[in-house]
Fold these 4 entries.
Entry 1:
Amino acid sequence: MSANTPQRNVTVSTIADVARYIESLTSEEFFGTCELIFERGRVVLVRTTRTLKPHELAGRENRGASNEQSR
């Protein structure tokens, strides 16, 4: 399962910008995919998709279930 990474205002216009962006994902311990689209040698799109591990989803579902039971 995956969830889209929250939108960020990041300007990526050079390969150095792309490298810095990927380094920032690494420092956040990002788990997912990062897709780069090039046109005529220039980066025109950077798309990231965050992947959630099953144990991360279980924590989210349990919180919702406990809220329902308390009503």
Entry 2:
Amino acid sequence: MTSLKKIGRILLSLGAIVLLVGTTACQKKAAETAKANAVQKPANEFEGTVKVAVGKYLYLPTAQGFDIVLQGYDAGTLVGKDVRVKGELLPERPSIFRADSVDMKDASGAYTNVYTRTADLTMNDYLDVKTREAYPVLTITGANKPEDWEGKGEGKILGQAEEATVKAGGTEQPVTYIVVSDDKGHEIGKIIVDKFSDFSKYYMKKLRLFDKFWFYLKIKDTVDRRDRLRTKELFHADVLSAGLF
């Protein structure tokens, strides 16, 4: 009888172990399934500290790299603030998250609404990947080669933005250049930027750890030849977009 009792206890212990292992495996599988479903489920809410904002564009590190758009609102007022953003991802613009509401957290941890969307989203300064791919690459070989850019209208070029001051009319005025260099790092020339779109300024701030960007340009007036050869200022342009590709 004693032997039978021992065998019984062993069998009960083994059964408990099997039951525990099975339960643990099921719990693990359920957790993995829930996690997978959470990943697949489209996000419609983000919380975090605003790191970069220009115009209506806002970046939250917790937003998985999406660019958040607050239509009709100056998002720059939210830099450094803790916020909760609710909205919708846009399938036709995979990197864009349209904000429908933004709540800001105060010192007590309570949230107060600071933005509610009241108009349809408009993004006239947004260039999608397909549009950017269609821009021809500008190959600039020298200040004395205006044929490299004249008559092209639009184009993209790899360069580095640089702030400077120039004398004009007896006063110093700020100017932004796109410095174009050859493969050895020697300066070929400088493009005078008349205007940056909000989206391009936003992306340059968002990617502030990088020195060079691809700039998507609307090509404008060529600098006078004598000044061009003296200063290496090539032509005027508006920057429509900027990025790493």
Entry 3:
Amino acid sequence: MQPRHSGASLLTQVEVKRSISVLTAADWLRLHKVARALCRDAAFGADDLLQEAFQRALDGTRQCARTLDIVHFLAGVMRSIASDWRKARKRRPEMSLVTAAGSLQDVVLQVRDSAPVADEVLAVNEEAARLKAAVLALFIDDGLAQRLLEGIMDGFAGAQLRSLFGLSETEFASKRRLIRRRIDKAYPKDWTP
């Protein structure tokens, strides 16, 4: 497998450190929002995830292309780490030692099954449907934004949505900004109104 970028097209560790040191307050806010979103319903914290992303960027484990904005790069690193951590947790289920009937002599290893039970799946699906309806309701006055958001939620790529609705790149970017701002205003802290 060949590397995607040549050494010259990657930021050096010094350049990464400099880019991180000049992050604005808005950049920090964006990074914290991404970290919190990625840690929702996870066994790890947003600060740990953000710290790990910085560590990997600074020690050169993860390399940033010169064409990529540092905030987007760090968000991608966090997304990758969160995915890896979730997969690792599924491979190693939670275990705890419990005593049988209060006797210290009869210690039992209890392994928690990581597969969700039907009630948990149903609750998660109901909550997702409720949240989707609430977010779509934010755009009741803008049918185009509402349909674009539905497409985004269904996993359509930006180019697909632009061509489907006949939007220019500028019009599409403008609608995406409107969508993001309304959602951020309605849900400023981890999707809780």
Entry 4:
Amino acid sequence: MSDDRYDPIYDNEPEIPSHMQGMRLKCCACNEPCVAIYVDNGIGSYEFWGQKGYHSQWDWVSDCCEDDMEELFEDDEEGEE
């Protein structure tokens, strides 16, 4: 019997996607520089009309507030000082 909720690809945190590598990021919630982390924002186990399932939604978010991120540009840094 297999357990379809287990996916060995998520045993280790995946590499940052190529379009995000080398990118300087800031958190949209606190506007501080941040690092991208991979988190599961799914609802987890559920049952719908007797059918059991597991929902996972993997997203890249900021490490400080777990919110969306945007690229940090040079002029953003100068405006804050």
